[in-house]
């Protein structure tokens, strides 16, 4: 039950994924040389590369959407990463192509396809279900603010990424990446790989571009978890105090572009009012090779020591090697910046209780906002009844243990909530990340990604994770009770940079400087990759 350490966090995800259809491949062999010269390979294309191709009319957004749909179709049977496709994606792409040819460019995301997680509401033909039959067909009054901002920035919402049902907040015993509606998502680095985290589909989709650390994305943070910079309005919640919306992308710079578009004050989400001066730094400009120069990075060795097992060795070894890279890039490594409450936090049941107390109330608020609620799901209690009696929800094989606990306990309007929440704030704050940053005068704390997310979600601080390495070829294959592969050769892992609240700009700089010096994503390849490329779409168009 590794993922039971809770932490929610919701993820938006830059698409650029998958797929291909054999029928369009007829021209492939004869054109392969010319093709690779003319078109960027979709596994490696960044937002900047795609934007350049769009700008010089090498291809259109319609071509891009067609190519990605084809790539998704190629692999969806194997990895189940995408729940549904936006039926209007091609129409939207055509409109954005027209705008572009008329000289209107909304910004760097103009005409770029993006997948969003299936708990971010959109007021269009797509469902927002958190992977449950309970919400199929339900409608919302408006786009989630994040979706609205992405649209306004010119992004094409291509589809919804499969996720762990209710962002993994239902059962005490279920598998990562499973939902009644979406089925089981698998990781792309080993057959039947546990996709981890609730953002399973998002991460798998972006991993198939080659870059994302999938392995330890757990519930909380997928790849980057920003501060409360992003509005959560109309995102199906777990916990208002712990959820965060963030991008999962192929590269650090791509994440910076997405974050730039979605960050900012939203009057519909009070948490965003904490943004200093209400202003957002330039995250793209923060992507500098000098991003590590002169910065103090602490290692809380006791956090790593607390949860070390025989499967940790390759991660820790790669982490130690990364320290040399960080130092060579000008960082100052500060050893033993231990978190004073690490052991106590690990033992505590309060973090889960706080999330459950939020869930009862926050879910009800979301359900109340629906403009059409076909199954009349109005509260967690009703949702539990539905889930336990609807055969496709796979109850009791997958229980509702977390809901049972939440419904038995106090909720976040109870005075006991505030005492518990203060204690959780202490674990993540003075007793955890914030205390270590402060005492040691650090710019960030670094950890192998597996150990990182627990320390950010309670205090609303950002994390950015970049690929670090992968399990070696002699790794014994370990499966969980659901048959999901937990450890196996080639399964990647990451390194995380954790900073103070609203330190995204600095963290992005560090992650970029590390990524550019290591380019681990080029060394770890999924075992399955789609083959459709832009050439297949563009050349076909001209025949
Ligand atoms: C949303 O769910 C409904 C079923 O209620 C289905 O008919 C529709 O096709 C779904 N939308 C998409 C985009 O798949
Ligand atoms: C923000 O807080 C104010 C004051 O507590 C409250 O009236 C308002 O409804 C809140 N808004 C949201 C979107 O939660
Ligand atoms: C930090 O924790 C590590 C691992 O538990 C321990 O070896 C080290 O002595 C601690 N350092 C300090 C300064 O307490
Ligand atoms: C770790 O130990 C368990 C048994 O305790 C074993 O099943 C597994 O194969 C070991 N994994 C590695 C990577 O050595
Ligand atoms: C955590 O729990 C273990 C096992 O119950 C106990 O031995 C240990 O003292 C506890 N640690 C703290 C810091 O509470
Ligand atoms: C939260 O708890 C209070 C007090 O027990 C109760 O009146 C209220 O209905 C609960 N809220 C929800 C959403 O269940
Ligand atoms: C939901 O409630 C409405 C109005 O009370 C009712 O007409 C409808 O049959 C209910 N639907 C379900 C699935 O229970
Ligand atoms: C993507 O880039 C990597 C690293 O440069 C390279 O090995 C790989 O062949 C590229 N993929 C394609 C499809 O061009
Ligand atoms: C989105 C998508 O392409 N889904 C496809 C996944 O595979 C099944 C079976 O081949 C198709 O029916 C879906 O359309
Ligand atoms: C589009 C896509 O890949 N969706 C998949 C989500 O997962 C379910 C089942 O696991 C698949 O049937 C869908 O095709």
The total domain count is 1
CATH homologous superfamily heading: Amidase signature (AS) domain
Q: How much helix is in the residues? A: 25-40%
Overall strand count: 15
C-alpha geometry: globular
The total count of helices amounts to 17
Q: List all distinct small molecules, including ions and cofactors, that are bound in this structure.
A: 2-acetamido-2-deoxy-beta-D-glucopyranose
Distance between the termini: 54 Å
Cα radius of gyration in angstroms: 22 Å
Average residue-wise pLDDT: 84
Instruction: Return the structural class.
Output: alpha/beta
Instruction: Return the CATH topology.
Output: Amidase signature (AS) enzymes
Instruction: Indicate the CATH architecture.
Output: Alpha-Beta Complex
* CATH structural class: Alpha Beta
Widest sheet: strand order?
7-12-15-11-9-10
Beta-strand share of residues: 5-15%
Notes on the structure:
There is one protein chain. Residues 1-36 and 207-226 have low confidence and may be disordered. The chain has one domain (60-536): Alpha-Beta Complex (Amidase signature (AS) enzymes). α11 crosses α14 (415-428). It is globular, with a radius of gyration of 22 Å. It has a 6-stranded mixed sheet. It has a 5-stranded mixed sheet with strand order 2-4-3-1-8, with helices on both faces. It has a two-stranded antiparallel ribbon with strand order 5-6. The chain has helices at residues 28-38, 47-55, 61-79, 89-101, 145-152, 200-207, 252-262, 301-306, 313-328, 342-347, 350-369, 380-389, 401-408, 415-428, 433-439, 504-518, 534-541; strands at residues 10-14, 82-85, 113-117, 156-161, 178-179, 183-184, 224-225, 245-248, 296-298, 332-334, 444-448, 463-470, 478-479, 485-487, 492-498. Helix content is 35%, strand content 11%. The chain is an alpha/beta fold and 543 residues long. The termini are far apart. The structure holds 2-acetamido-2-deoxy-beta-D-glucopyranose (10 copies). One 2-acetamido-2-deoxy-beta-D-glucopyranose binds at residues 360-361, 364, 411, 413-414.
């Amino acid at each position: 039950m590794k993922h039971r350490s809770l932490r929610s966090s919701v993820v938006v995800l830059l698409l650029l994924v998958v797929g291909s259809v054999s029928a369009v491949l007829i021209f492939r062999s004869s054109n392969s040389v010319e093709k690779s010269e003319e078109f960027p390979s979709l596994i490696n294309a960044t937002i900047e590369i795609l934007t350049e191709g769009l700008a010089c009319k090498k291809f259109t957004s319609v071509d891009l959407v067609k190519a990605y749909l084809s790539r998704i179709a190629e692999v969806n049977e194997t990895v189940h990463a995408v729940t549904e496709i936006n039926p209007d994606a091609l129409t939207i792409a055509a409109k954005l192509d027209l705008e572009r040819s008329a000289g209107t460019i909304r910004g760097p995301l103009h005409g770029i396809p993006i997948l969003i997680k299936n708990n971010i509401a959109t007021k269009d033909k797509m469902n927002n279900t958190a992977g449950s039959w309970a919400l199929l067909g339900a409608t919302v009054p408006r786009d989630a603010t994040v979706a609205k901002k992405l649209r306004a920035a010119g992004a094409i919402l291509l589809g919804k990424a499969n996720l762990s049902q209710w962002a993994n907040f239902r059962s005490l015993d279920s598998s990562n990446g499973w939902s009644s509606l979406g089925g089981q998502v698998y990781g792309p680095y080993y057959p039947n790989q546990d996709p981890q985290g609730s953002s399973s589909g998002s991460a798998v989709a972006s991993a198939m571009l080659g870059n994302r650390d999938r392995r330890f994305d757990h519930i909380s943070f997928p790849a980057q978890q920003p501060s409360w910079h992003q509005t959560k309005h109309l995102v199906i919640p777990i916990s208002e105090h712990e959820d965060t919306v963030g991008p999962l992308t192929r590269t650090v710079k791509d994440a910076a572009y997405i974050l730039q578009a979605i960050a900012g004050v939203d009057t519909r989400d009070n948490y965003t009012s904490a943004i200093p001066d209400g202003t957002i730094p330039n995250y793209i400009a923060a992507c500098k090779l000098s991003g590590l120069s002169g910065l103090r990075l602490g290692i809380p060795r006791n956090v790593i020591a607390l949860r070390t097992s025989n499967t940790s060795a390759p991660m820790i070894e790669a982490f130690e090697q990364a320290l040399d890279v960080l130092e060579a890039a000008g960082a100052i490594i500060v050893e033993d910046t231990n978190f004073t409450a690490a052991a106590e936090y690990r033992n505590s049941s309060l973090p889960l209780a706080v999330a459950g107390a939020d869930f009862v109330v926050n879910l009800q608020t979301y359900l109340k906002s629906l403009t059409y609620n076909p199954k009349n799901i109005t509260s967690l209690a009703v949702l539990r009844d539905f889930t336990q009696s609807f055969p496709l929800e796979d109850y009791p094989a997958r229980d509702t243990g977390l809901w049972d606990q939440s419904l038995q306990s106090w909720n976040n309007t109870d005075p006991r909530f505030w005492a518990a929440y203060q204690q959780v704030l202490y674990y993540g704050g003075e007793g955890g990340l914030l205390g270590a940053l402060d005492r040691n005068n650090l710019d960030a704390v670094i950890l192998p990604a597996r150990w990182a997310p627990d320390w950010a979600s309670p205090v609303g601080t950002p994390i950015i994770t970049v690929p670090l390495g992968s399990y070696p070829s002699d790794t014994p294959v370990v499966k969980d009770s659901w048959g999901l592969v937990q450890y196996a050769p080639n399964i990647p892992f990451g390194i995380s940079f954790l900073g103070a609240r609203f330190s995204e700009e600095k963290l992005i700089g560090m992650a970029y400087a590390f990524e550019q010096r290591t380019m681990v994503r080029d060394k770890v390849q999924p075992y399955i990759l789609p083959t459709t490329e832009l050439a297949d779409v563009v050349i076909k168009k001209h025949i």
